[in-house]
Amino acid sequence: MDEAVINERERIAALKLTNDKVPIREWWFKDNALLTFAFNTSSATVPEGERFIVRAVEEARDLVSDSGLKKQADILIHEETAHALMHDAYNRYLDTQGFPATKHVLETKVLLLFFERIFTLKMRLATCMLIEHFTATYSKQIIEVGVLEGEDTDERMDRVWSWHCIEEMEHRSTAIDLYRALGGGYFLRVLISAFVSIAFLIAHVRCLIDFLVAKRLLFKWHVWQKGIPYLLGKKGVYYLVLKYWLFYFKPGFHPAQIPIENRFNKQLHHYHIEDELVGYFDVPVR
Asked: How far apart are CA 193 and CA 130, in angstroms?
């Protein structure tokens, strides 16, 4: 495969599906409920997580003098704001399908507002760093393995997640660079990151279980049997997240130490296509 993820062929294919009012399949990834729901539950935590990051980075940007770092912060702010708006539409779509997406969006918002009340700026940046580390390694796995490529994945959802993942890899170092510029140290970083890891694991698993319960699939063995390899196997979406989680706790860790291998010729620069992506979700529900 030598096509770029975001290209004219894919844009036209996705646009045709939208213009023809073709519904997004409920299980849009290879008719696999578990992996489809894993992506969908990730969407439920995205908008408020991105806004939390934007607020912390805006505050930190105004305290640093390095022009290059300020530019990095501006790119992250633009991209994360766009992600939040697109996933707002994604989550409204999930609500129409009978998933409790808005419930988990609001729960995530309450949790992050609590963090904002009790955390200092450095603690909030440490939280952002861990979130960015998770999303960058998740994105690296999706893009490098080509998880979403193939005719049995809805072209629109491939495009939505590929766009998001490419941009997450692009700004993966910004939060930690701001943290270090403001004097943040190792002990605070690992303390906050251990706490936040547990909090977000609980939130994500609860959301996944709720989504499965909503469709009466939680105790269906075939769903787990078919889906687990796509989650935890070497080509699974969480493989690198698990592999690199402990790596994050090494003294001197920096995201640049994790190479991005462009083996599928992905276009690793950002795209301002959020309005197009939002339009994908204005389709009938099947």
From this structure: 6
